[in-house]
Amino acid sequence: MEQDTLDSIIKAGAVTREARQLGASMIAEGVSLLNVAEETERYILKKGAKPAFPVNISINQIAAHFTPASNDRTTFSRGDVVKLDVGAHVNGHMGDTAITVEVSTKNWSSLIDAPSKALSMAIDMISEGVPVGAIGGVIERGIRSNGFVPIRNLGGHEIKRHELHSGLSISNYDDGNTAKVHNEMLLAIEPFATDGAGEVDNAKPGNIYIVQRDREIKDAGAKHLFDLIKEEFGSLAFCERWCSALDPKAPANLRTLVRQGAIYAYPILIEAGGGMVSQTEHTLLINGSRAMVTT
Ligand code: MN
Ligand code: MN
Active-site residue 165, yes or no? Predict the structure, then answer.
């Protein structure tokens, strides 16, 4: 691996970790989701990195893919189980990390501990040559040992330059995948635990988007925003907040772009059985017989 690449991966990991710590420290009763998302993203920019995706703040039965809109006034409530998922990149080299925080209560400590424990067990066993299915098996055992179930249709992923999800997919159970971990791979491992069905369903879109296909847009306003989106975000996910900072008519123009198939709106992911959800995530750089945690 080139020294430049390694330096960027290490820096992205460190910035992502610090941003996660800052965001998590802000989560409290009465604080707005918008404030936490914006401060966390501002920190990433201040450190000379860029967000790899909008900060995800997913509460209780919501597992992932929610970020507040620019006019969202929602605040955290006592008892909320909050997943904060943060990504940053340096020259396209990324860190991806998540933590779960419970607001003011301790009713869900064992649920919150389950994915952390599973992730530690996975980090200890991951090395060059380990089959992906075996990682999932260890994660599932870690979660079940706390009395919960893994979410089977969410999982970890290989990260490549400018591509958050690319190459290997790592299930949170043994899916029988015999593909092996290779040296110098960058992997995000992200166990999700629940007391519900162990599966997520798609709900309504949650303000997070990605360019789907480059096509001609007739509407002048939507075309202008689409050009800005391609230039600013390229192949990475973005959100209504970031677009509204570029274009006061962003919400309407985003709807036009979704309708025309130019961009895709990610649905919010909700636990299918109405279960509570916790998540922990780290990015790992495979270095021979060990996995180095970058985040
Ligand atoms: Mn993540
Ligand atoms: Mn991830």
Answer: yes
288 with 18: CB under 8 angstroms? no
* Crossing angle of the two packed helices 132-144 and 109-125, in degrees rounded to 10: 150
CATH 2.40.30.160 corresponds to the domain 203-267 = no
Q: Say which of 38, 128, 162, 165 is annotated catalytic.
A: 165
pLDDT at 255: 97
pLDDT at 206: 85
Least distant ligand from the CA of 157:
2
Tell me the three state secondary structure of residue 124.
Answer: helix
- C-beta atoms surrounding 259 within 10 Å: 11
Question: Which CATH code fits 3-199+272-293?
Answer: 3.90.230.10
**Residue 261 backbone zone (phi > 0: left; psi -120 to 50: alpha; other: beta):** left
Active site residue 157: yes
Angle between helical axes of 250-259 and 220-233 (0-180°, round to 10): 90
Is residue 190 flagged as an active site residue?
Answer: yes
Residue intervals in the chain for CATH 1.10.10.10: 203-267
Tens digit of each residue's pLDDT (9 = 90 or more) over 252-289:
999 999 999 999 999 999 999 999 999 999 999 999 99
Parts of the chain belonging to CATH 3.90.230.10: 3-199+272-293
